[in-house]
Design brief:
The complex is a heterotetramer. By secondary structure, chain B is mainly alpha-helical. Chain B has one domain. Helices cover 68% and strands 2% of the residues of chain B. The two termini of chain B are 41 Å apart. The C terminus of chain D is likely disordered. Classes of the chains: A mainly alpha, B mainly alpha, C mainly alpha, D mainly alpha. Chains in contact: A-C, A-D, B-C, C-D.
Chain lengths: 483, 361, 229, 100
């Protein structure tokens, strides 16, 4: 352990110290001072982003750390994405926390720790570092899901998330233990070397299957998706936005890294299973979303479907596939947060605009927001001028070039289905009259909507930088996989 | 080990050597220790009543035998002969098992404690001894929780819950206060810890804070005054053992006193030099005692016993002196004072050790 | 090594007995109606597993297993089960038709795992079993150099030490950062348990709190108040 | 020395029983106990492999798993208490404000 190692870990150190300070801050900042909490959190995020830049140039750490963590461009890409996403969620949360019923300081502190866990996940190259990061994220998420403890459904959501999450952790761990036995190590590179020499070891295969099952739970893929609709509906809306973007992106980061770095030579053994999971996620997610009248539930099912699309990129095991995963995560995060911001913008009594008919006639009362919502939905559906198209294009192309044309066909068909239910919202906004829910004029939420709108359109129209960035980020991992 | 008693050892000639060394000798030592401990526990109750009587300016028990000295025989006989009542609505199995649960760890721990210079007085010397002791003592709480729950009595349940909260809370400073000692001695073996102290100074000097925290936490761990909330007479009738009578009650009682004894032994070993009376390797060290033969070994045991007796009296002294804490005060003391203090102690100890090591270069 | 547990007969008997108790009690954990009984059998399972750890030469982990699971986690379980008063729970039907599906799946899973694991294929051993007790030991020894000054030299060796030392060296050298992350999620758990578990008092309840608690009147003041001094 | 596969099969039994418990029980706390059973099976498997492979890394895992188990217990039980306050039940089927 040297000073260079500390520099290497700087973002995580900044974040964890900052998280602790947020816990201590109420002593001077005032117990119910949500505004101070929000600005402290944003300041912390800025510091973290700066630290990521500094750490990225810090070079190779000493042996003690280097075996467990890396700061390769892949990790840096995800870390920066996490920071941006959390910053947006911080702004979304501010309004909910300002009435002072629930303490803002602990909320942001938990969010900071969750972010720290996600960053460890993104940079972990050893299953233990991935696992501890994952647990840090999960524990914080359980608590955040139940943060509105005076509301039964929030607590119920926390309970369901916790029970199923802990079960999936157990399954994941058992898978890891079998892999450990088969490979003799849990470092991804060591696994990759060991796996190459022991094709057909059944203990290893069942270990990988159990590990995959645990990961599928974390990304909410069928058949491990049952928790998603309930938790997304019950949790406070900003937390739902957190779960459906940040948490899912982090899970995909480790999904991609584990499969590309560790298990690529075992591909013949797992590809049919992942293909089935991807197909089922797209079909079940989209078809179930069609019947929903609650927007939160609908978006929950749609997020299951998006996990299915993104799995195509993992399945493809190619440069373009991994690039697709990164691009898709980026555009999905912006479009999804934009959608959640719109849900939060609409209020009917206590609750956010949760029903489809809350959007009735929005075009008349707030044309800009209605337009933004359409763009987000188009992006989620993958329609050309928006960023979502680029992401889906890469994923589908990867699937076809890897010989999964049938999956690409399912994906396209299911995207069409998804446009059907997304357009129910568009119809409600533009064609239906009726009492739209109040648009709460909150500056922060409006700001987020505008930012996401601009990002979604810009990334869709001028995607070169994003594509180049993704290509640079995946370089180290693809080099490893092709070795 | 078998060299010390060749005659007895020859009795086991037909048994394989490792069996003798690992099973037979420890068993014999344990049986002897068990008998002695039972005696000490019974005697402690008498001492407690007499000392409390003295402190409160009254006589205490003085009728059975000269100066009441046979009271410690009369009490168990009374408890043995008492009617055994099982309350209606009690969870029968749990009610029956509960009193036995705290006994087991309390007596198992004695296997791990060296009462005098090794090897004669140490039943076993495990290299994770201290950790095992912590682990075993932490399981003592089950009897209390279960007894409180199985009695089907509100006061008992409250007593059990209080006890669970209290023991889990004080487990933390209890463990943390030892860390400083471990850092100084670099071993989890109790014999090794004592050995380090006779070469330097008693740990109580460099670890004064740790010792203080340990003293408080060990009093709380065994639910003694001023932390006797689980059985607070004035609030909860008698807490978790309200519904227990006869031998079952005696078991709880026995376990509590055995735990007191364990903790007194622990503080002596960890902070007060165990069976030695030596500073910087001079004085009555383990080696001196071993070269003196039986006389020296017995001397070591007596020194140890005297130190332990002091801390047993100290428990009673506490009970005679301090008023009982309120429950929120108890929790506040544990979480807001003891744990942070213990953590600071660890950090400071670590820094000092580093400074000394580097400064000595 | 003169470890008695290496004796074949003793260790075999130990494994069979302890394993049987562990399996039996874990069956009872999932089949008992009363959560308190389940918790007690779970405790028994944990203790059996700890004994098996010790029998495998991982005595440090065994001790920690007892300390963490038996001393901490199960006490917490029992505490909560009793706090929310288990008798108020409706009688739970354990083996209904739908739950038979679960039983079937559990049995199926076991059969698959057992067939695969019984074949016993695993990575080649990197070291002998003693390696669980081997650690990198850094010793500093003063050496007098040519100029007469004393300098400290560090020698790094791999020695067979106790299980505790070996684990400690690995934990604080190789796994330092995950260890720090562990401290973070324990902090998160502590904060979260307080945030979620603490009940906000409503107005009527706040009134019911005695003044001396609400205002944190010191004991001396209260004594003065009571005695009128 | 007891063969490693015996320990592994014992671990498999405990793990399967844990899964079985999660699938069949409806009482939240008992489900959680079944999860703990699964986690213990994992610990057993790790230690068995660590002994077989002669590597300390398996032991390290058990420490982290225990830390996680302790943290999960604290959070999970707090959630159960909070839920009980709302619903007076911890039956996971009765937590049905949002149908599965």
């Amino acid at each position: 352990m040297t000073w260079a190692d500390l520099l290497f870990l700087l973002p995580e150190i900044v974040l964890s110290i900052g998280g602790c300070l947020l816990l201590l801050a109420p002593v001077i900042g005032g117990r119910n001072n949500g505004v101070a909490a929000k600005w402290s959190m944003l300041l912390l995020l800025v510091a973290t982003a700066a630290a990521i830049y500094v750490a990225a140039g810090a070079g190779i750490p000493s042996l003690a750390l280097g075996t467990l963590f890396v700061a390769d461009p892949f990790a840096v890409f995800f870390k920066l994405l996490f920071v941006v996403v959390i910053a947006m969620i911080t702004l979304l949360s501010a309004e909910f926390l300002e009435d002072g019923r629930y303490s803002a300081w602990e909320y942001y502190s938990l969010m900071a720790f969750a972010l720290c866990g996600m960053m460890f996940m993104a940079s972990g190259t050893h299953l233990i570092s991935i696992y501890v990061g994952l647990e840090l994220l999960s524990l914080a998420s359980y608590i955040l899901a139940g943060y509105y403890k005076n509301e039964t459904r929030s607590t119920e959501a926390a309970m369901k998330y916790f029970v199923l999450g802990a079960t999936s952790s157990g399954i994941l761990l058992y898978g890891m233990s079998l892999i450990y036995g088969a490979c003799g190590s849990l470092h991804l590179e060591a696994i990759s070397q060991a796996v190459a020499t022991m094709a057909g070891n059944q203990a290893l295969i069942i270990g990988v299957m159990l590990l995959g099952a645990g990961l599928c739970f974390k990304v909410a893929a069928v058949p491990f998706h049952v928790w998603t609709p309930d938790v997304y509906t019950g949790a406070p809306t900003p937390v739902t936005a957190f779960l459906s973007t940040a948490s899912k992106v982090a899970a995909f980061a480790i999904f991609a890294r584990i499969f590309y770095m560790g298990l690529h030579s075992l591909e013949p053994d797992w590809n049919s299973i992942i293909a089935t999971v991807a197909a089922l996620s797209m079909i079940v997610g989209n078809l179930a979303a069609v019947t929903q009248t609650n927007v939160k539930r609908m978006l929950a099912y749609s997020s299951i479907a998006h996990a299915g699309y993104a799995l195509l990129g993992v399945l493809a095991m190619s440069e373009i596939g991994l690039q697709g995963v990164l691009i898709y995560m980026l555009v999905y995060a912006f479009a999804n947060i934009g959608t959640w911001a719109m849900v939060m913008l609409l209020r009917r009594r206590e609750y956010a605009g949760e029903n489809v008919d809350d959007f009735d006639g929005l075009h008349k009362s707030a044309p800009l927001y209605a337009f933004a919502m359409v763009v987000f939905l188009l992006s989620l559906g993958g329609i050309p001028p928006t960023a979502g198209f680029i992401g889906k294009y890469y994923l589908f192309a990867a699937a076809i070039s890897a010989g999964y044309a049938w999956l690409a066909v399912i994906a396209v068909l299911m995207s069409a289905v998804s446009m059907f239910y997304y357009f129910r919202l568009v119809v409600a906004m533009y064609l239906k009259d009726g009492a739209a829910a109040d648009v709460i004029p909150s500056r922060q939420v409006r700001f987020i909507v505008i930012v996401c709108l601009i990002a979604t359109l810009t990334l869709g129209i001028l995607p070169e930088r994003m594509i180049r960035g993704a290509a640079r980020s995946i370089a180290p991992i693809v080099n490893l996989a092709s070795r | 080990m078998s060299a010390t008693l060749p005659v007895v050892a020859s009795l086991f000639g037909s048994i394989p050597e490792p069996m003798v060394q690992w099973v037979v000798w420890p068993t014999i030592k344990f049986v002897i220790a068990f008998a002695i401990i039972m005696g000490i526990v019974a005697f402690t109750t008498l001492v407690e009543r007499r000392v409390l009587g003295f402190m409160q300016a009254r006589l205490g028990p003085n009728r059975v035998g000269p100066q009441g000295i046979l009271q410690f025989v009369a009490d168990p006989i009374k408890l043995l002969l008492k009617e055994d009542i099982v309350p209606a609505g009690a969870q029968k199995a749990a009610y029956f098992i509960a009193p036995m649960l705290p006994i087991i760890p309390a007596f198992l721990v004695f296997c791990l404690i060296p009462f005098g210079p090794p090897p004669t007085f140490a039943i076993t010397d495990v290299n994770v001894g201290l950790l095992l002791i912590l682990a075993l003592t932490s399981t003592g709480v089950y009897g209390i929780i279960l007894g409180g729950w199985a009695s089907n009595n509100k006061f008992s349940l409250l007593g059990g819950l209080r006890s669970a909260a209290q023991m889990v809370s004080y487990e933390v400073p209890f463990g943390l206060s030892i860390v400083g000692v471990l850092m100084l001695s670099g071993s989890l073996s109790l014999v090794e810890i004592v050995h380090r102290q006779e070469l330097g100074v008693w740990n109580v000097l460099p670890q004064l804070v740790g010792c203080f925290i340990f003293l408080v936490a060990m009093t709380a761990e065994v639910n003694r005054a001023p932390f006797d909330l689980p059985e607070a007479e004035s609030e909860l009738v008698a807490g978790f053992h309200t519904e227990y009578s006869g031998m079952k009650f005696a078991f709880f009682f026995l376990a509590e006193y055995a735990s007191m004894l364990v903790n007194a032994c622990l503080i002596v070993i960890l902070f007060f030099g165990g069976w030695t009376l030596a500073i910087a390797g001079k004085g009555l060290t383990t080696e001196t005692m071993q070269t003196m033969g039986w006389l020296g070994l017995s001397l070591g045991f007596l020194i140890f016993a005297a130190k332990v007796a002091f801390f047993m009296i100290l428990y009673i002294w506490f009970r005679g002196t301090f008023p009982r804490y309120r429950f929120d005060q108890l929790m506040e003391l544990g979480w807001k004072w003891m744990i942070p203090l213990a953590l600071v102690n660890i950090v400071v100890t670590g820094i000092v050790i580093l400074l000394v090591r580097n400064g000595g270069a | 090594m003169t470890d008695p547990l290496m004796l074949t007969g003793v260790s075999l008997a130990l494994f069979v007995i302890v394993g049987a108790i562990a399996v039996a009690s874990s069956i009872l954990v999932v089949s008992m109606r009363n959560p308190v009984h389940s918790a007690l059998f779970l405790l028994l399972t944990f203790l059996c597993v700890a004994i098996l750890f010790v029998s495998m030469g991982a005595e440090f982990v065994g001790a920690v297993q007892v300390l963490v699971y038996a001393g901490g986690i199960m006490v917490l379980f029992l505490f909560v089960v009793m706090l929310i008063n288990v008798k108020a729970l409706p009688k739970e039907k354990v083996f209904t038709a739908t739950s038979m599906m679960g039983v079937l799946m559990g049995v199926l899973l076991f059969i698959i795992l057992a067939i695969i694991l019984a074949s016993g294929t695993w990575a080649p051993a990197v070291n002998a079993p003693e390696n669980l007790r081997t650690a990198v030991v850094v010793k500093t020894t003063p050496v007098v150099d040519a100029g007469g000054a004393t300098i400290q030299t560090e020698t790094v060796t791999r020695d067979v030490v106790g299980n505790a030392e070996a684990v400690g060296m690995a934990l604080y050298r190789d796994y330092l950062v995950p260890f720090e992350v562990a401290s973070l999620f324990l902090l998160v758990a502590m904060v979260g348990a307080i945030v979620i578990g603490k009940r906000e008092l409503d107005a009527s309840e706040e009134e019911a709190i005695p003044e001396f608690i609400a205002k944190k009147v010191s004991d001396e003041d209260r004594l003065k108040e009571v005695t009128g001094a | 020395m007891i063969p490693t596969s015996w320990f592994l099969i014992l671990g498999a039994i405990l793990f399967s029983l844990g899964v079985l418990g999660v699938l069949t029980r409806r009482n939240g706390i008992t489900i959680f106990m079944s999860i703990e059973l699964m986690v213990n099976a994992v610990n057993l498997t790790f230690i068995a492999y660590a002994r077989e492979l002669g590597s300390l890394h398996g032991l390290m895992w058990v420490f982290f798993i225990m830390a996680v188990a302790a943290a999960e217990a604290a959070v999970g039980l707090a959630i159960f208490i909070a839920l009980y306050r709302h619903r007076e039940t911890i039956d996971v089927d009765e937590a049905n404000l949002m149908h599965w």
